[in-house]
C-alpha cells in the first residue's frame, strides 16, 4: 500500500524537467512576468512547501532539518534505495535545509563520522 504512494517531484526536479523541454528562459523585460495566468500556472507547477509538522512548532528549523535528513537515509537503509515513500523525507529536508549543511552531512556520512545511526 505504501509502495503505491504518489510522492510529488521536488521543485528542483520540476525545474530540471522544464529546462530540458525549453532551455531558453524568459527575457527579464517580457510582459509574461506581469500576467496573472502565467503566474498562477507556474505556482501550481513548481511551488512545493514542506507540510507543517507539530513536532517542530518553533521558528528555527535546525532540528526538523536534521530529523528529516536522518529519516530519509534511515528509510533508504531499511526499506531499500527504490522505495518511493522515502522521497517524501528527501523533499522536506531539501526544502528546509541550507545546502552547506547537506554537503557537510554527506561528507560526514562518507567518512563514517555522522552522529546518527541509520540501521535502527
In percent, how much strand structure appears in the residues?
under 5%
Number of strands: 0
* CATH C-level category of the largest domain: Mainly Alpha
- Characterize the main sheet: none
List keywords for this structure.
mainly alpha, CX6/COA6-like_sf, disulfide bond, COX6B-like, Cyt_c_oxidase_su6B, Cytochrome c oxidase subunit
Notes on the protein architecture:
The chain is mainly α. It folds into 2 domains: 8-48, no CATH class; 53-119, Cytochrome c oxidase, subunit VIb (Arc Repressor Mutant, subunit A, Orthogonal Bundle). Helix content is 53%, strand content 0%. The protein contains 5 helices and no strands. The protein has helices at 11-21, 36-46, 62-79, 86-96, 99-111. The longest helix has 18 residues, at 62-79. The model has no long low-confidence stretch (mean pLDDT 83).
Task: Kindly summarize this structure in a few lines.
The chain has helices at residues 11-21, 36-46, 62-79, 86-96, 99-111. It is mainly alpha-helical and 120 residues long. The longest helix is centred in the middle third of the chain and has 18 residues, at 62-79.
Chain-wise SSE layout:
Blueprint: H1 11-21, H2 36-46, H3 62-79, H4 86-96, H5 99-111
Helix pairs in contact: 3-4
